[in-house]
From TrEMBL:
Compositionally skewed regions (Basic and acidic residues) per UniProt: 141-151
Protein species of origin: Falsiroseomonas stagni DSM 19981
CDD domains referenced in this protein's UniProt entry, alphabetically: trans_reg_C
Signal peptide: none
GO cellular component: cytosol; protein-DNA complex
Protein name: DNA-binding response regulator, OmpR family, contains REC and winged-helix (WHTH) domain
DNA-binding region: 154-252
Modified residue annotations for 4-aspartylphosphate: D69
Coiled-coil portions: none
Domain Response regulatory span(s) in chain numbering: 20-133
Length: 256
């Protein structure tokens, strides 16, 4: 259970958009208690009780941070962190009662950002979330530097112009409609589009997009490519091509 009754109270964060925090927890009472606590501190919590519901929530509204219980019924979520990482680059905080050090180390190596041991106080939960959100904010370019970036990078296809907006972080089709990309999908496309026609190795892509070292058994990058190809529509498989023993190459946007 959470407790906010003792110790020094947390201060208010600076004004800004309320962060969207996804809580993946199958204990309904605990999930509700965490959601109420985060709401009290100016956040917008969303809850999911199953892995399937969590994935649907991520795809419907990209979160700013995910609190993920290690166990959802009989499902151990640690081996599935790679899949989650292919859908979002938001920090992932594992909530667990497991105090085995090796499990924590493995989780951190495969993409988790932090471990929260049960029981956890409301103050610590809020403080940990705020700390990770601040780190994300600090990694973004300062506003003045962002203003110096080109407003857009364009790539021509035979059926019109696709526009990759680097500041707005959007991809628009020739008809002006926006392709709904996750943060990680946009980053992947942006990195590949920097060198069209030239392969980019897996180590570079994993480091720049997923922000961690690549390992031969890491399938998160492949899953991310798969999702991005689907969103590019017909011809997506040809737009991003796998080069054996090298990586991936961007060959140009598909028609339409």
């Amino acid at each position: 259970m959470l407790s906010m009754s003792s110790g020094t109270e947390l201060g208010a964060e600076e004004a800004g958009p309320a962060p969207n925090v996804l809580i993946v927890e199958d204990d309904e009472a605990l999930a509700e208690e965490m959601a109420l606590t985060l709401s009290d501190y100016g956040m917008r919590p969303t809850t999911a009780a199953t892995w399937e519901a969590a994935i649907a929530a991520v795809e419907a509204a990209p979160p700013d941070l995910v609190v993920l219980d290690q166990r959802l019924g009989r499902v151990d979520t640690l081996p599935r962190i790679g899949m989650l990482r292919s859908l979002t680059d938001a920090p992932v905080l594992i909530l667990t009662g497991n105090r085995v050090e090796t499990d924590r180390i493995v989780a951190l190596e495969i993409g988790a950002d932090d471990f929260l041991l049960k029981p956890i106080s409301g103050r610590e939960l809020v403080a940990r979330i705020r700390a990770h959100l601040r780190r994300v904010q600090q990694t973004r370019p300062p506003e003045k530097e962002r203003e110096k970036e080109p407003d857009q990078a364009q790539a021509q296809s035979q059926a019109g112009t696709w526009t990759l907006l680097t500041v707005e972080r959007e991809l628009r089709r020739g008809d002006g409609s926006v392709v709904p990309l996750t943060g990680a999908e946009f980053d992947l496309l942006a990195v590949l589009a920097e060198a069209p026609g030239h392969p980019v190795d897996r180590e570079t892509l994993t480091k720049r997009v997923l922000r961690r070292p690549w390992r031969p058994d890491d399938r998160a990058l492949d899953n991310l490519v798969m999702h991005l190809r689907r969103k590019l529509g017909p011809g997506g498989d040809r737009a991003i091509t796998a080069i054996r023993s090298q990586g991936y190459v961007f060959t140009g946007f598909p028609r339409g």
